[in-house]
Every structure is written in structure tokens, then in C-alpha cells.
Design a protein that fits this description.
Blueprint (H helix, E strand, L loop, with lengths): L2 H15 L13 E5 L8 H7 L3 E3 L15 H6 L6 E6 L8 H17 L3 E6 L2 H6 L5 H14 L4 E6 L16 E6 L4 H5 L1 H11 L4 E7 L1 E2 L5 E2 L2 H16 L5 E5 L1 H6 L2 H10 L4
Helix pairs in contact: 4-6, 9-11
Amino acid sequence: MTKNLLCAIFCTMLLIATPSSNAQKLFDEPLISLWNHRTDLDLTDLVSKNGFNLIWTHDEAYTGVEKFEDTHMYKCLQIEGVDYVLAKIERAQWGWTQEESVRHAKWIAKLSLKHKGIFGLYLNDFYDEIEDGIRTEEQWEEIIAAAKDVNPDIRLVAPHYPHRNQEKHSFDFEIDGIILNLWGNTPEIIDNAEKHLKVGLEHHPDRFVIAGLYLHSGVDGGNWLTKEEFKKVLSHYVEMVNKEKLAGLRIFSAGQLIENPEYIKWTKKVFQNLY
């Protein structure tokens, strides 16, 4: 047996013995996150009671003069227990121009080089904007490139709504993570939550994935989740996090929790099963 053949056999055995990487194990702890687009709220009590370590924040588009210390990101990072914040590129439909979005992406990426508490940058309602003709794929690519050119390691997160069949899209962008959102809170959506989550995860085998849950959402006034619906879906998310099939979970939103504090108690109860 030749030396080259022995080497080939040994290398093959190493490949077989080495487990495949798990994108959901990239972080030292699960990402227990909370959406908060209201800058007036004090989240200290929510974080203390429920252990949120990542806050999805909202800042206006950078104009060139804002200081990090005056941002919503900075405010949330001052809360004991909060390790990370996720910045956001807001929807063009809600007023952000392409110029503003590119400038903001560059600024966040620059800040993330210095402030490790900035977990990354969220591209709000990514494919919704494309489907609705609000933004083009080329415009999103420009925003992504603007951030990555400044900090190649910045984490970019995009949403995927599996109950809207968004897996029909390739998601062929330089995106690092996905938030799987179930928006609408209809019985059909909630009853099929596990199926939707499975479909979404299968579409992103090499990205970290966070599962999102809305307390209140939907058309024509929307729907609040019942106690049973809320605990069933959130418990499944916790189970998936414990099995390292999810990098984390997200509750939408801080304002809705404060508006209906019974959800705070239910959340705490379910989160007791996290480990």
C-alpha cells in the first residue's frame, strides 16, 4: 500500500469521524431575546424577571452626527443582564431612503468593531419589501455590502415567514442568521407552528436561527395569543433551544408584555425549563 493511499484513507476516516458543525451552537449561551421598538420603556424589570440577554432595538437613521451614547442601543446595554443588542435597518415602506439605509449600515458596522455588545444588524422585513416592490434585491445587496465592507464579521439577520411560503426564495445573500416569524396569530398558524418551524430550519441549515413569537398580531385588529397557545408554542421553542436546534428565541414585544403582564408570568414559567 503506497504512502499516498494510506494518507487518503486516513483523511477520509477523519472526515467521517468529525461531526458536522452546528450553526445553532455558535454562541456561549442561548439568545433569549426581546423586541423593543419603543425607546421610552424601562426594560429593567422585564430583563430581571425573564432573563432576556438580547434586545432588538430601534434607532432613527444615522445622519452623521449621532453619538453611540445617545442611542437606544446604548440605553439597553446599560441594563443589568443584557449582553447584546441588535440594531436595525428599518423598512423603506416606513420612510427610510436607500441613502439613509446604506449610511446607517456603515455606521452600525463601524460601531460593532469597537462595541462588542452590538450583536449585529437586522434587515427588517427583508423579502416582504422585495415582494411588495418597495426594495429591490440589488438595494438589499448594497446595504449588506456596505456593512460587510466595514466589518466583515458583523452578523446580519433577516426574517423568514414560513407560513407565507417564503422558503420559495433562495435567501442567496450574505446573511448570517434568520429569525423565523409566525405573524398573524390565527388558529391555523398556531396549530401548525411546529411544522412551520421545521420547514424554516430546513431552509437554513448553515445559518443560526432564532424563533420568534408575537403576543399580538394579525389583520383587522389582530389577535392575542391565548394562554394555552402561548405556552404551547413557547415551550416548543424552549425544547428546540435545549436540543441545540435553535440558537435562541424572541418575544415580540416589550410593550405588549407590559400592556398584558400575565404574559410576563407565563414567560417566566416556560423559561424555567431552559438549560
